[in-house]
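name: query_chain
kind: protein
chains: 1
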Amino acid sequence: MYFCTIYFYEIMEKTFDPNAAAALGSGIYGLPCTADEAEIIIIPVEWELTTSYNRGTVDGPAAVFDGSMQVDLCHHDYPDLWRRGIWMDEFPKHLRELHDSLIPASEEIIEAIENGDADENPQDYEGRYKAIEDGFEQMFAWLRARISYWKSKGKKVGLLGGDHSTPLPYHQYLSMTDEKYGVLHVDAHSDLREQFEGFKYSHASIFYNVLKIKNVEKLVQVAIRDYCHQEKQLIKESDGRVVVFYDRDNRRRMYEGCTWKLICDEIVDALPEKVYISVDIDGLDPKLCPNTGTPVPGGMEYEELMYLLNRIKGSRKEVIGFDLCEVSPGEGTEWDGNVGARVLYHLCGVI
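structure:
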């Protein structure tokens, strides 16, 4: 693997100009590498059946791919990152068609709940719920197999959603490896609901489901500013397994003289030696992701997130995987995809 990587570096240096504009038909970030040559594989997951506020994250991977063409390859912290090779996989056409076919059932359920009809006639929606859950199971099975396939090839793997329900198969895959690890979760929301609007695999339930996996030793949440009573109680009763750095508490401490470095060091210290990073783009200030599924005032500045990720990298902890979710393209703007592409590039540097 080492010699293959060095050989690829030499080929890239001779045949590719990282200073030039991205060429038409090139891969993500304008890179010319094949899947075999790339060290990092990005798996796009075009899926958002439970999003109830702003929809559009299903097209997030395409928006990030397009935005990646505007990213200069000389990364400030990892200037040789482009040489390692990054390649973006394809989401199967049949699964995208399955997703799109289930959208009407999803929308009917959510509309019925908002109108107060679903509770009065729950039996009318059982078939819809079952179809959506079955659709999730089909997509999850493909994604677990795909992650396993790329890992067997020695690749580093990141997921690109889609809504935040999509990373569960990554954790299911890791559960089969018996690898003990912690999760850094950057988000506006705790995502610890047992279920939301009746959906077992809701984007609001991702970490409730992840915590069922015994391999996950610790869940460390950052930038949280929207949560319900059930989630707060779960955190309280977790006996330290869930640690939350609430956005308002972080801000108060900083306003009173605490440095972001000190807070980041506390976050890093709360994590075990192996770390999976899960970034919901709405963990950032919504000016950076205005079209995301559920924007919330407050949140992290872009450079605060970059600094935190670099502190993890500098701590010598092993980053074993990552996901970036909830990027949603806005009508007539490339801003969300542009920001998402830059966050993704940095995550590639960290892994």
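note: The first helix runs from residue 2 to 15.
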